[in-house]
C-alpha cells in the first residue's frame, strides 16, 4: 500500500513539475515575443523619425535653393533693366547731340522744338561752363567765356545771382559736388544759370 502510494505520489508530482516547467517555458517565450515586438516597434519609430527629418532637411534645402535662384534672377533682371535704360539714354543723348551739332544755325534761329534736344544742348553748355570755370579758377583767374561768345565778369555774376543761389536746391547740389571754395562755387552756379537762360533764348 505504501509502495503504491509513493508511486502515485511521485507520478502526480512529476506531472505537476512537468506542467509547471512547460508553463514557465511558454511564459518565457511569450515574454521574448513581447520584447521582440517592442524592439521592432521602436526600430520602426526611429526609422520613421529619421525619414521625417531627412524629408524636412531636403525641403528646407530646396526652399533655400529656390529663394537664392529667385534673388539671382531678380538681380539679373534689375541689371538688364538698368543697362537698357542706360543704352536708351545714351542713344537719345547721342541722337539729340548729333542733330543739334549738324544744324547749329537753324537751331539758333528756330524756337524750342523738343525737350530732349533742349536737355542735351543744356547739358553740353553746362559741361563746357564747368570745364571753363575750373580752367579759369585754377590757372588764369580771368572772366569766364561762355559758349555763346559773350563775356561777363565773375564778380558781376556773383552779385547778380547770389540771392538765386542761396535759395535754390540745385545750387546746393552743385556747390557740394564741385569741391571748390565758397565764392568760386557761387560763381560756377551763376554761370550754370546763365547758360540755361542762354539755351532758352537761342531756342535749343
The helix-and-strand class reads: mainly alpha
- What pattern of helices and strands is seen along the backbone? HHHEEHHHH
> What is the strand tally?
2
Radius of gyration: 49 Å
- Largest sheet strand order: 1-2
Explained architecture:
It is a single chain. This protein is mostly helical. Helix 1 crosses helix 3 (115-140), helix 4 crosses helix 7 and helix 6 crosses helix 7. Strand 1 (144-145) and strand 2 (151-152) form a beta hairpin. It is built from seven helices and two strands; from the N terminus they run H-H-H-E-E-H-H-H-H. Mean pLDDT is 63; it is low at 1-5, 103-116 and 137-175.
Topology (SSEs and partners):
Elements lengths: L1 H101 L1 H6 L5 H26 L3 E2 L5 E2 L1 H7 L1 H6 L1 H10 L3 H21 L2
Antiparallel strand pairs: 1-2
Helix pairs in contact: 1-3, 3-7, 4-7, 6-7
Keywords: Membrane, Transmembrane, Transmembrane helix
In short:
The protein is an all-alpha fold and 204 residues long. It contains seven helices and two strands.
Could you name the key traits of this structure?
rod-shaped, 7 helices, membrane, transmembrane helix, 204 residues, two-stranded antiparallel sheet
Amino acid at each position: 500500500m505504501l509502495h503504491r502510494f509513493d508511486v502515485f505520489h511521485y507520478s502526480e508530482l512529476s506531472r505537476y513539475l512537468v506542467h509547471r516547467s512547460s508553463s514557465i517555458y511558454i511564459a518565457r517565450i511569450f515574454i521574448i515575443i513581447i520584447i521582440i515586438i517592442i524592439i521592432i516597434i521602436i526600430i520602426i519609430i526611429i526609422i520613421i523619425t529619421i525619414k521625417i527629418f531627412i524629408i524636412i532637411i531636403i525641403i528646407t534645402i530646396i526652399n533655400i535653393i529656390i529663394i537664392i535662384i529667385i534673388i539671382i534672377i531678380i538681380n539679373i533682371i534689375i541689371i538688364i533693366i538698368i543697362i537698357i535704360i542706360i543704352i536708351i539714354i545714351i542713344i537719345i543723348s547721342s541722337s539729340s547731340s548729333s542733330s543739334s551739332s549738324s544744324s547749329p544755325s537753324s537751331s539758333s534761329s528756330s524756337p524750342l522744338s523738343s525737350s530732349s534736344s533742349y536737355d542735351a544742348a543744356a547739358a553740353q553748355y553746362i559741361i563746357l561752363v564747368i570745364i571753363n570755370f575750373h580752367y579759369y579758377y585754377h590757372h588764369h583767374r580771368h572772366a569766364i567765356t561762355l559758349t555763346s561768345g559773350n563775356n561777363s565778369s565773375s564778380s558781376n555774376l556773383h552779385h547778380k545771382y547770389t540771392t538765386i543761389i542761396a535759395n535754390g536746391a540745385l545750387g546746393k547740389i552743385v556747390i557740394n559736388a564741385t569741391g571748390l571754395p565758397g565764392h568760386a562755387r557761387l560763381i560756377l552756379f551763376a554761370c550754370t544759370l546763365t547758360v540755361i537762360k542762354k539755351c532758352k533764348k537761342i531756342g535749343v
